[in-house]
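Minutes, project check-in

Agenda point 3 was the complex the collaborators sent over. CS summarized: two entities, 566 residues total, and the question is how they sit relative to each other. Sequences were read into the notes so everyone works from the same version.
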Amino acid sequence: MTESCPSTKSKIENGETPRTTGAFSWERTADHEPSGTGAFSMSRAMVQCLHLHKSHPGTGPILQNACLEIGKGEWAFLVGETGSGKTTLLRLLTGLEPVSRGQVIFAGKNLHRASPKERAAVRHAMGLVPQEPKLVSWQTVSQNIALPLYVSGKDNALIRERVQRLTTLLNLQPRKDVLCSRLSAGEKQVVSVARALAGDPLLLVADDPTAALGPLAVLNVLDVLKFFHARGTTILIATRDRTLAQQVPGSRVFALQGGEIVEE
Amino acid sequence: MLERRYRYLAQSSLRGVGGNWFASSAALAALTLCFFLWGLLAAGALALRQSLPLWWTSDKATLYLLPESSEEEQQRLIRFLKGASEIAEVRILSSQEAKKRLEHQLGGWKQILSGIEDPILPTTIEIAFKPKVRHGEQIEAVLDRVRRQPAVEEVFYGKSWVERIESATSGLRLAGTGLMYLLALGIFFIILHAVKSSVESRREELEAYEILGATFLFGKVPFYVQGFLLGSAGALMGGVPAGLLVLRAEKVMPLPISGMVTLDLWKGVLLMLGLILTGAVLGVGGGWLGARLYGPWGRVSS
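CS then shared the predicted structure for the full assembly.
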């Protein structure tokens, strides 16, 4: 079953081009390419969810026949109320949870049939901002941001440069040497965003990344995301806040209704 | 870069032990106790195994002669014994020599003989068997022939003692082996639960590694190292003193216990190294299973 779902087809496949905006400079060199993507063929769609079903034992279905396709370079929002299944969808989409039925295709490869090594490669190519920041509490802000770069074996100079740039962009410079256990909830969320961006991901998947942030911090995070989007990063953000999508003109908005995905 | 990764790994592993110091200390104390008991059992079994053949080879038969037996009968008996192909040595002890030997064997208890009129013991002949006839049936056949000699009143052979000791030690060996298995299981579960507690306390961090696709070196290996450290430290702290105690026991314990715990130094050292290696292996095994069972990874379908 590999047919896509027409109602949620990517605009790129329909002939539209992604919007590009940029306010910051960041050189993307060969060395900046996300590592570990060799196992995946690059189709027009960055990620596809095909007829996804998900239910947990003892509870009703969370997702039913959910279909979603996001093209390379697109920016999409997934909106829905608390408990609508946004987090579950993102976890399925990133391979952090198994599907009950259906497929998740990332860069042409069925993620849930991939080997552990291939899944690790996918994670290196993705940036994930979880609902809870999930930081390494005994490491500093800088060390947490550098973590995906340690993991993918980048060299020290690049790590320093990326950490310096991201801490500057996200106003974390004064806090860069502070242990993460001492940060506020909002600061932790910003660090989580910075960490997801440090690997220069092909796809950024963020689960309510602005939930704990004040209005100015939200604007700043959106500006940074716009900069990365302008450089080609595909972005998918799950949020309860529909107004967030209004701040990104040209973005696509999907809503989760009764376990199905509908494009608005 | 490799060096940075391993530095991170070392930090993370030590964090697993030190970050949850109460659970780690409790686990280490329990492991030390388990390894101490294990070490005592293993070293004791080894010492017993080393001692038993000594008793067996030093086992001799003692022939008590009839007091009314004539000199000629005694000489005929000695000729018969010296002519037997199974007997290596024949030694005649007069009743005085037999008494002296008994007093020596009794040590501090020799005063119990005071007041008993001589001769306490009759003239006796000690015979030692050749190495090739150390099996019970062969010895019994020789002793049957000896018993039929006219000058012989009684033949004392410690076979029944050896059998009793063997039976007791085989029971002990079985119980000890069972106990050692139980202790090994206990050690494994202590390490498993220490790792579980560590996994629980670091769940958020582990989920971060999972998100980044760093499940092995960053996520799981620190728990293998934690298990290794706990297992080998427990073995070092518990097993080595137990081994040293058994090595020392020969010198400090009174007879006959000291004779039962003879252990060569090199065997003791090997045993201690073996215990540390076992601790390390059980530790890595516990760490592996703990990380596998309780870690946040592996939930993705394959």
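Noted in discussion: Chain A touches chain B at residues 36, 94-99, 112-116, 119-124, 128, 130, 132, 134-138, 144, 147-148, 150-151, 153-156, 199 (CB under 8 Å).
Follow-up: revisit at the next meeting once the mutant set is ready.
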